[in-house]
Specification:
With 981 residues, the chain is mainly alpha-helical. Among the domains are: 168 residues, Serine Threonine Protein Phosphatase 5, Tetratricopeptide repeat; 147 residues, no CATH class. 74% of the residues lie in helices and 0% in strands. The longest helix is centred in the last third of the chain and has 30 residues. The chain starts with a helix and ends in a 14-residue tail after the last helix.
């Protein structure tokens, strides 16, 4: 420190004392600013009464005149006490005059100092008051020092401090002693002297200066360890008053200090920064304050050191200093700005590789996840949080985009020309891992930005980029969530359309990774479709909506959700003017197809028919889909008929089917339509129309499977319209095609019946004959065939052929055992009756002629055959034939008796012989008569059981003729009188 500066500082105290002690008035009277016992006595001596003086601005006092006044006054006062006071004041004025002369460079100053010294000595020698003596000693040392006699000044100060260590002037004396030692180069003693001042406390006037000078003393001694606390105390003292006034939270600033204090504070900061730069830079400051305790002004030390490094282009050291402070005191109001300066130092020094890492560290330190963000939000001042938010907003965005870009570059390293050298040396797996880490970091920064700045205008862009990073790393579920949040939560943003659309791409990619037909797949598929619907609803003027609607339309159609499929097909067919130009003909065709197929799926066949008809007209028969569409068109009409059938509207169904046969005659469904139309016409009893369709069908489609049933339907038509010949022809043809099966057998039998009904004997007779000869089973039908054959021959009068089949009936029933039926039994009885009648006729045709014995023998043989034949009839137990057989048996007996009595008589008999012969004949005839009577009676008695037919009646008539007394009695009928008594 220069000597001039030191002298100016030392002049301060006595000047203040002199000016505050007294001043000259206009009438040369002296007024004390403070009344004490001592100066009260002086006032009494002078006879000056205390007066109240209004404070006015007076011109500076003339020190020479004031000195002369004090000298004159002191020579006239006899009171020793007053004399000492006046001498003291005189010495002080002499000092002021000397200092003034010294400042002017007047050579007389030395003499003036001598006079002051002498006066102080006189005061000291005469002083009885210790306070005056101490004050005089202190001023004497100053006088010596200003005179240039520093050793004498030091000796006086040592004497003062030795004899009066508790003096009011002790601290100032120690300070002046320190100054003296410092000026003499005795820095160790100077440091000790300054320490005495410091030990007295911060309230002392020379405290900050002592700390400052002690710091320099230690610095001169190269004792930097002790120099730092001294300078630090100086700074604390310098800012103490401002801290007291402005209170907690105030950040010391050298600009608030006076010019002199500012210079000293700046110098202290400079020296401390220089020392710390040699001890470990910013970390050395941290270590220092960890030991000595952080001070409000500590940040100034860090800032000074960093600024020195920046001035010297030591950017890395400057960055380290700033970040050391920020990391150590992250809640300090300047922590954010210092960390930013740390980053700026890298930028100024052109260290781009360090910048992003520093920004990442900033986010880590001040961000919400691992940093002090929450603590900052709780501080009383919001400025630190505002600063942090400002830079977090910038850095998070830069970091996210930087990592995202790096990840993309690593993923496409083969085509990248900007890949850093470090990454280009990595293996593929290492590059993939680095890319994964970069993506993860980008996502973390994006998410932090979103959580901190949810309402920021950049939020949609950042969240969109986040979704992009998830998509690129195949985290499709996360990508979907954020894409949709941007797309529909920020629909006014420029990213909304792209975000919403890319969400759909993410769904598609996600579904490709899942196993179909699982709950998870179904869940995401439903979510995708919901997102597609939302996209269409919100972005209907985006041309990409067309593809989305196409997908929705197709998906809904594939899922059989036909109503929605139609809804989306209509959307495409009626697209808004903004995007209609992008709906290509192929898309329109697809929409029309889905609409047609969906109407078909909904069984809205009327609409489907119209849709398909329009498509066919548009496409023409050369289009690849024409045949399929034409078939669907036909099926739509066909299904309208089916619905009509379900609603029991067969007439309407026939109309649709006939229309189908007209508009689509060459479609396979037209074949079915013709077949069904014929069936429905049959059900409607429109047999003529049905027959025409069936015959046409059989003619046009002989190999069609449905043709197999045409004959059955035609049979029904023929039966209903009594076209028996045609029906029989069908059945006969069926038999011819399958003679061995039961179906063929039945067809032959029925064909024979229909031929018979048609009156075609030439067809029915051989058919029945073939059946009767070929198929013994079923028994009932072969029995009927045999009977019909017998009837054919009965009608034609071919008795022998008839009897052949009658015998077949008898043999068939007799051999059937328990399998016989009432019908076969009746027909057997009828057949046996025919043979019995034949025997009866043969019996009746034999005449009894001579020789009687011969003819009678023949007659009896014929009778026995007739009896056997009739008994055969009776064995069947058929009532109608049993009564006839019984009656005929009785008739045989009576006939034989009558024939005997009417037989030819021998011509050679005499009258007596003839009489005897007659008696003999009667004897022969009588048993037959009796037998006949018995049989007639037995037959007649059936009436008692309720059987009364022509044969029973005939038996009664025969009995009446034979025995009129018994069987020919008149019938008496009693009338019931209705008269009342």
């Amino acid at each position: 420190m220069s000597r001039a500066v030191t002298n100016r500082l030392m002049l301060l105290s006595p000047l203040v004392i002199a000016l505050s002690g007294c001043w000259s008035t206009a009438d040369n009277s002296v007024t004390e600013d403070k009344v004490t016992p001592n100066n009260q006595a002086l006032m009494d001596v002078l006879g000056v009464a205390p007066i109240i003086v209004e404070k006015t601005q007076l011109p500076p006092a003339d020190l020479s005149a004031l000195r002369d006044n004090y000298a004159d006054l002191a020579s006239t006062v006899d009171d020793p006490s007053l004399s000492r006071q006046l001498l003291m004041r005189l010495a002080d004025v002499e000092m002021l005059v000397a200092e003034e002369e010294q400042l002017r460079g007047d050579s007389d100053s030395q003499h003036t100092f001598e006079r002051a010294i002498d006066t102080y000595k006189m005061t000291i020698e005469s002083a009885e008051d210790e306070e005056y003596r101490q004050s005089a000693l202190y001023q004497l040392s100053r006088a010596y020092d200003l005179q240039g006699n520093s050793q004498q000044s030091v000796d006086i100060l040592n004497d003062l401090l030795e004899t009066s260590p508790e003096s009011l002037h002790a601290t100032e004396a120690w300070f002046r002693l320190g100054e003296a030692h410092y000026s003499n180069g005795d820095y160790a003693q100077a440091a000790k002297a300054y320490q005495k001042v410091l030990d007295a406390g911060e309230q002392e006037t020379f405290y900050s200066m002592s700390a400052y000078m002690q710091g320099w003393a230690f610095y001169k001694l190269s004792d930097y360890t002790n120099a730092l606390p001294s300078f630090d105390r100086m700074l604390s003292a310098s800012f103490a008053q401002a801290l007291d006034i402005k209170g907690k939270g105030y950040l010391p600033n050298v600009d608030v200090l006076s010019k002199g204090q500012r210079k000293l504070a700046q110098d202290s900061l400079r020296v401390m920064a220089t020392l710390f730069s040699y001890q470990g830079n910013g970390q050395a400051i941290v270590d220092y304050y960890e030991v000595h305790g952080q001070q409000p002004h500590s940040y100034l030390v860090f800032d000074e050191l960093a600024q020195q490094h920046l001035d010297n282009d030591r950017f890395l050291d400057a960055a380290e200093t700033y970040v050391a402070f920020a990391n150590t005191y992250p809640l300090h109001p300047n922590a954010v700005s210092f960390f930013v300066k740390h980053i700026d130092a890298f930028i100024l020094g052109d260290f781009p590789s360090e910048v992003m890492g520093a920004k990442a560290a900033f986010v880590k330190l001040f961000g919400p996840d691992q940093g002090v963000y929450e603590e900052l939000s709780k501080t009383e001042s919001s400025s630190a949080l505002e600063q942090a938010n400002s830079y977090l907003h910038t850095y998070l965005r830069e970091l996210a985009q930087s990592h995202h870009s790096l990840a993309q570059t690593l993923n496409n390293w083969e085509s990248s020309t900007s890949l850093p050298e470090f990454f280009s040396t990595l293996s593929e797996s290492e590059r993939e891992e680095q890319a994964r880490l970069a993506y993860a970091s980008a996502a973390e920064y994006y998410l932090t930005f979103i959580s901190l700045f949810g309402d920021d205008p950049l939020r949609p862009q950042m969240q969109f980029n986040l979704a992009e990073s998830y998509f690129e790393t195949e985290q499709f579920d996360n990508a979907i969530m954020h894409y949709e949040d941007v797309g529909y939560g920020y629909s006014d943003s420029t990213f909304a359309n792209d975000a919403a659309y890319t969400a759909l791409l993410s769904y598609r990619a996600l579904l490709q990774t899942l196993v179909k037909d699982t709950d998870q797949y179904a869940h995401w598929l439903a979510q995708q479709q919901q997102s597609q619907r939302q996209f269409v609803q919100n972005f209907d003027t985006d041309v990409r909506t067309i593809a989305v609607v196409q997908t929705l339309m197709q998906d809904q159609f594939d899922a059989n959700h036909y109503l929605e499929a139609i809804q989306y097909s209509q959307w495409l067919l009626n697209a808004s003017a903004e995007i209609a130009h992008a709906v290509t003909p192929d898309i329109l065709l697809s929409a029309r197809l889905v609409q047609a197929h969906s109407h078909f799926g909904l069984k809205d066949f009327v609409a489907a028919e119209q849709d398909y008809q329009g498509l066919l007209q548009t496409l023409g028969d050369s289009h690849s889909s024409f045949d399929q569409l034409a078939r669907n068109y036909a099926i739509s009409i066909f299904n309208q008929a089916q619905l009509a059938v379900e609603n029991e509207k067969l007439d309407e169904a026939v109309t649709h089917l006939m229309r189908l046969m007209t508009v689509a005659p060459d479609r396979d469904v037209s074949v079915t339509a013709q077949y069904d139309a014929a069936s429905y016409l049959i059900a409607l009893s429109r047999f003529e129309e049905a027959q025409a369709l069936l015959l046409d069908f059989a003619s046009r489609y002989p190999a069609h499977t449905l043709t197999q049933d045409i004959d059955t339907k035609l049979m029904f038509v023929y039966e209903q319209t009594e076209q028996w010949q045609a029906a029989g022809d069908i059945l006969y043809a069926q038999w011819q095609g399958d003679e061995t099966s039961l179906e063929g057998q039945q067809a032959l039998f029925q064909a024979a019946q229909y031929f018979q009904k048609a009156g075609n004997r030439n067809a029915s007779l051989p058919a029945f004959r073939t059946y009767a000869h070929t198929y013994p089973d079923p028994f009932e039908q072969v029995t009927e065939a045999r009977f019909i054959m017998s009837e054919f021959y009965r009608t034609s009068g071919e008795d022998s052929k008839r009897r052949y089949w009658l015998n077949k009936l008898i043999l068939g029933h007799d051999s059937a055992d328990s399998g016989g039926t009432l019908r076969s039994q009746t027909l057997a009885a009828m057949s046996a009756m025919v043979f019995a009648d034949d025997a009866r006729v043969a019996f009746s045709q034999i005449k009894l002629t001579m020789p009687l014995q011969t003819s009678l023998t023949k007659k009896k043989d014929a009778l026995q055959r007739a009896i056997d034949s009739h008994n055969k009839v009776l064995t069947y137990g058929v009532r109608e034939f049993a009564t006839a057989a019984n009656h005929n048996l009785a008739t045989l007996y009576i006939t034989l008796a009558e024939d005997l009595m009417a037989s030819e008589r021998p011509t050679s008999l005499s009258a007596l012989e003839l009489e005897q012969y007659e008696l003999l004949l009667e004897e022969q005839a009588y048993p037959f008569e009796e037998q006949a009577l018995s049989v007639f009676e037995a037959n007649a008695q059936r009436a008692w059981s309720g059987v009364y037919d022509e044969w029973v009646q005939a038996s009664f008539e025969q009995l009446a003729a034979l025995y009129p007394s018994r069987y020919r009695k008149p019938e008496y009928i009693e009338e019931l009188s209705h008269d009342m008594y």
